[in-house]
Each structure stands twice: as C-alpha cells, then as structure tokens.
Known about the structure:
The structure is a single chain. Strands 3-8-2-9-10 form a five-stranded parallel β-sheet, with helices on both faces. The chain has a four-stranded mixed β-sheet with strand order 5-4-7-6. Helices cover 42% and strands 24% of the residues. β6 and β7 form a beta hairpin. The radius of gyration is 17 Å and the shape is globular. The chain has a domain of 132 residues: 3-Layer(aba) Sandwich (Rossmann fold).
Amino acid sequence: MKRNGNLIVISGPSGVGKSTLIKKVRETLDDLQFSISCTTRSPREGEKHGREYYFMSDDEFNTKLAAGEFLEHATVFKHSYGTLRSEVVSRIERGEEVLLDIDVQGAKQIRQAAEHDKLISAAAQFIIIAPPDLDTLKSRLCGRNSETPEQLKLRLDAAVSELQNFRIYDYVVVNGDLDTAAAELTAIFRAIRLRSTNITGDIF
Ligand code: ADP
Ligand code: 5GP
C-alpha cells in the first residue's frame, strides 16, 4: 500500500507552547518535518537563517510573493510570514509528514487551497493548541522573555480572537500539563497517518 504524506497545520496563540510541544512529540515521532517559513521579522537570539525561518527583507519577500511562490502568507504582528510551496508539495508526494506552524489567517488559506487542490485536500489536517486559561498564556509569554512590551501586548491582544476561530480546526489540544498534551498530540499524529484519504491507488 502506498500513502502520500500529510500536511499538518498547527496554530495557537504565541506563547501557548507550540514549539515546546512539537519538540517533545518529535522525541517519539522522529520523522516529522517542519516547513521552514519565510519572515521579515528579525531573528531572536539563537535563531538561525534556514533553521527556524528564512529571514529576509520586505523586498525579498515581496518578490517571492509576486512570483507566486507562497502557498499561504499573512501579516502577523506587523511582519510578513509565508509558507513556500517548495517546502511542502514535493515532500507530501514523497510520503513525508510536513508540519506548518502558522497563524489562523494562514490556516484559512490552506483550507481554501484544499478546495481546488486534491493533494492538499487529502493531506491537510488542522490542529489548534489552546492554553488552559489566559493568565497561564500571559505568564508563559512573559516568561519566555523574547518580546518587547509592545510586541507582548500585540501577541496577547491577538490570542483571544485567534482562539475564537477554533472551529475551523479538526482538533483542539489544551496545553496544560506538558506530558499530557504531548501524548494527545502524538496520538493525533498517529491517527492522521492511518487515514484512508492519503492512500494512493488500491489497497492491495
Ligand atoms: P510558542 O511556540 O507557542 O510561541 P513556546 O513553545 O515558545 O510557545 O512556549 C512559551 C513558553 O511556555 C516557553 O518558555 C515554554 O517553556 C513554556 N511552556 C510551554 N508549554 C508549557 C507547559 N505545558 N507547561 C509549562 N510551561 C510551558
Ligand atoms: P513568531 O514570530 O513567534 O515565530 O511567530 C509569530 C506567529 O506567526 C505564530 O503564530 C506563527 O504560527 C505564525 N507564523 C509563522 N510562520 C508563518 C507562516 O509561514 N505563515 C503564517 N500565516 N503564519 C506564520
């Protein structure tokens, strides 16, 4: 039996623990691959071009946009972010699992792309990570110490409206206890792999 890969979209407010959770899940499922997004924001301490993001100028981003290189793109917290088609399509065809850590605007665009693209339609699954409550989210985001006060306010203000979109996702995982949430996410990834829609051709 041959299967295409999956395109797993993960969203959730900044600071909810997406990176932490995915890192933990990858200790068990080591064949999950991240799509590396393009962004015009500056690298944080420890971030490397080509590892966390492709960091680029507005001009470079706009040239790629005009050339139709993005599967989805959005302005998030005053910077441009986008997923390159080249990071996604050929990998799904090779049977790989591709993770997109993108915001709700991007998730909506992938849903729209799935309406006229059979490969994306069969491969895409949508997960949102929610905090147990807003105070927990605030303390995690502050604790990370990576944002200016202005950026922090932007991210907290966006969190509620982002979470209100939970119904466009297939799964909601609450990241309270890290081990519990990581086990739930691992179970979802395992189930996604067994879906009938990504089997190509006949079963035997
Ligand atoms: P995101 O990728 O969603 O922006 P991070 O993974 O950077 O969020 O997590 C933000 C902060 O919250 C980090 O300091 C991380 O260690 C902490 N964190 C994440 N998940 C949990 C959890 N379940 N319990 C306690 N702290 C957590
Ligand atoms: P950060 O700046 O903290 O790395 O990311 C900020 C937000 O941008 C997060 O919600 C993240 O999911 C989102 N994001 C990162 N890459 C992309 C992308 O390629 N497209 C979209 N739409 N959002 C992205």
